[in-house]
Amino acid sequence: MHYGWLRCKRLTDDKQLFKALYMIQVVAAFLVTAGHYTAGLGSYTTVTAWDTALNHLSRFGTVILAMLTGFFTAHSFIGKNTTAASYLVGKFFYIYLPFLAAGLHYHCVLTTTSFPATLNDWIKIAVGRTGGHLYFIFMIMQYYIFALLFRHWITRRNIWWFLIAFIGIQYAFIDYNFYWRGFGVRYFLPTWIFTIYLGHLFYFYRHSVVAFLQKHRPLRYGLLLISVAGTTFFALSTKLYTANHLRFVLFTAILTVTLVLLFLSVVKRFSLPFSKGFTYYIYLLHPYIIIFLNQWFMRKWHWNWILDNQALSFLYLTWIFVATCILSWIISKFIGYFDVSKWWLQRNRELPLAQRRGRAQSRS
């Protein structure tokens, strides 16, 4: 038997790595979808041990997405040398505006009023309290601001010291169980700061880590065994580990590295076509697709028998995810035609050139 991922060649550039991470993002988006799918099964059928195990596994999705957000943000600052202005413009147009649109949509879907009628309604939309999953985006936006402010402070040389501080902050914030005006701990960056900056750590050491593991086959086997054993433990555990639990976070970091090695061999033969914002729109849209399809199949047509069979239930979940992917792909391609970040970069390049030409003409 040939274990290609355990004998893969050394990584030469970031192209394959980014393709692998993109596929891991899609897998994580599926896990998040599975989490919200299984969370609502009790309304239509009896929840089985399989459903509970899948719900436990789904929690890896949010943690992986948080880590990879840190990874690609580090790449944006270091690999792309993104300026503060273009960074903020991009986040506003491609993160915050879709977030507001999703918040407005979930307000209309999940409340009795078809449109926000009060100032409090609009405030809830602005901070992600109209959809149960939007808290994560509200927290991520806090991280984007923090990362921008500290982009020159947190470096490859000192990130270990920051991680020591961040793990203490994350533990203390969760242990204190901070709660303010209806916002639980998960709404705030300190609950996730160590998790996200593990992504920065992997970005700084990505070549060293991958090359070292590719060179030492026993370590790769050991990493695989740890990943399989740990995933089984968390899936079957009677204790529900939240996405912020530090033991769960540290294991997810190990699991993510294992998935990177796995998908590095996959992308040599097959890779998903990239579309900017694709997994983000999956995250925003998947609860609505679940609600919409359940409304038809479970409430209107009473096809609850689908959920009583594990295979059919998983196929239904897959169909929900595929439908979400199709809609998200269409939206990402449509918005891609209005790429404000590219326009902003082009504008910033052309403006100095025009200024220099103007000075030259005035001198002549």
Brief description of this entry?
The protein is mostly helical. It has 14 helices and no strands.
Q: Would you write up a description of this structure?
A:
By secondary structure, the chain is mainly α. The chain is built from 14 helices and no strands. The protein has helices at 14-39, 49-78, 84-110, 119-126, 135-149, 159-176, 193-204, 206-215, 217-236, 246-266, 278-300, 305-308, 310-336, 340-363. Helix 3 packs parallel to helix 11 and helix 11 packs across helix 13 (310-336). The longest helix has 30 residues, at 49-78.
Mean pLDDT: 88
The proportion of residues forming helix, as a percent range, comes to over 70%
Radius of gyration: 22 Å
Can you tell me the overall shape?
Answer: globular
Helices and strands, in order, run as: HHHHHHHHHHHHHH
How much beta, percentage-wise? under 5%
Number of helical segments with 4 or more residues: 14
What is the makeup of the main sheet?
A: none
Secondary structural class? mainly alpha
How many angstroms separate the termini?
A: 75 Å
> How many beta-strand segments?
0
Unreliable stretches: none
